[in-house]
Amino acid sequence: MHCLRFSTISFLSLVLLGSDALVHAAIFNFQVRTPSVADPPTAPPLSRRSRHFARADSNSTSSSSSRGTIPVLNTLNAEYISNITLGGRTIPVLLDTGSSDLWVTGDVPGTKDLGKSVSLSYAVGNAKGDVNTADLTLNGFTVKDQAYLLVKDTSTFSLDIKAQGFEGLIGLGPNTGSTIRDELDDDEAGDSVLSRIFSQNTTTQNYLTLLLDRKGDTTDAFTGQLSVSELVPGFENITTMPKLPVDKVHRLTDADQHWQTFTDNNGVIGPDGQAIAIDSIVPKADDGELVVVFDSGFTLPQVPRKMSDAIYGRVQGAVYDETHGYWTVPCDQLINISFMFGGVEYPIHPLDVSSSDFNILDKNGNPVCVGTFQPITSAFSLLGEYDIILGMSFMRNAYALMDYGNWVPHSKNDRDDPFIQLLPITNKQAAHDDFVKVRMGGVDKTGDSAHALLPADQGQSSPVSSAEKKKMYEEKILSRWPYIFVGCLAFVLIVIGLIIWRCCVRRKRARATAKNAKKLNINTSSSVYVESSYPDFGAHHGGNSTPMKEMHGGHQQQQQYNYDADNYGYYPGKHV
């Protein structure tokens, strides 16, 4: 059973962060701005990575255009939900590319309990229950006896998840990250939903695509869609985009494998149009590159602290909240940033760089917006496997295709390595105009001095806590453990090899000594002593002298034999 590994904590940003007791999670009390509906739900206190805000807008659902296209419900840019059918029951589940397991609540008709308990732990609460199997349908694809976790008790969560519009979670990540599969001793019956679908449909291409829409965007001409082995109509150009190879983690830690790849060299462009230079914590990353995880389960992207500071620290009026670990900025401050992958630029809509979905007030009671690209802390990779987690605020700006390739063992047509393709869907000028309309009331004030960035030497930097410093130190050691392990193993093998070689040499010498002694055929009973012409090797070579007794004329004489280390034998020496 695995507890609080990254494949499970991708969901914790939804409803579960509310305590400092686990993984350095923190709370700040703010409410989500809810739509104008009768009797709106009371929004709970949210953590710095929370994504659980309010009931979904029923108008955000779109119809499926084909078998492989599934409508995705958008809850205020905070959670993305689709329906599955399990045991004949339709269940709304969160879409999470950062984990690999399926769990649901409530009754499932015809379910079979396998008698194995699993607990998926989060910062506040846990999804705990028995592993069950039931027939599953995902938009036309049917899987018999799909393994899933049936969660009976959700009281450990901070709120009623059903009231928030979902009753479970489907993990869309690599199969190796499945806790259920691990509990079933890697039995294929415990494989993830997508792995089962691809294994049964061996002639299909092993990919999914995800298109996320944006609430409050006046220019969005599409709604959210999930597709399996099929492209969303109108976005077919994604196949022309560079195939970004999935960065594979060490196989000893493949349970932490995610949809992750490398940025280009200096691949993050800041608000001033210049690259943000950050050193990767991943040992195998080339200079200037960063390892990025794409996770639809994170509302707010997690980036290195220096990067977050570079994005928000030069904004006039920006404030870093040390208690809760996030930046706030004036809501009318337009901030442009971009990411570079495979030589392609992916601009981020300024509405996604700061969020007005939270009712945050500054010390003077004025509304402010939350900087969405937060300093990475509780999701920090102690094993040094990634630098950045790009959640919804990034993924709304790129249509994503994730190809499982040879992660699916029984596939016939898709045997290449896994890869990711991203199609940019944000136009810089259109995004600029949209921001002006939404945040500035239609009056473009972006050129005013009040909205200009501060000089670089006047920019603010957020403080690093002692706990974070400790994590950074631990990461420097733990991230290199495979190399340390391999180095130690190589050293041990070399030492063992030297010992074996030395033993072989000594054994060879011993055999040679015995052989030479037989050749000498020394007759120790001879009565004639002959002065040896051999030199005294014992004196000159540190050999051992072996005195021997010899009878001559009725009295004893002593014959000395000296050991010749160079010729492996005893030779007669001088009479003593």
From TrEMBL:
Residues 37-67 are annotated as: Disordered. It comes from the Eukaryota. GO terms for molecular function: aspartic-type endopeptidase activity. One of its GO terms (biological process) is proteolysis. Residues 1-25 form the signal peptide. Residues 80-412 form the Peptidase A1 domain. The keyword Transmembrane applies. The chain crosses the membrane at residues 481-501. CDD domains: pepsin_like. Pfam families: Asp (PF00026). Keywords: Aspartyl protease, Hydrolase, Membrane, Protease, Signal, Transmembrane, Transmembrane helix. Belongs to the peptidase A1 family. This is Peptidase A1 domain-containing protein.
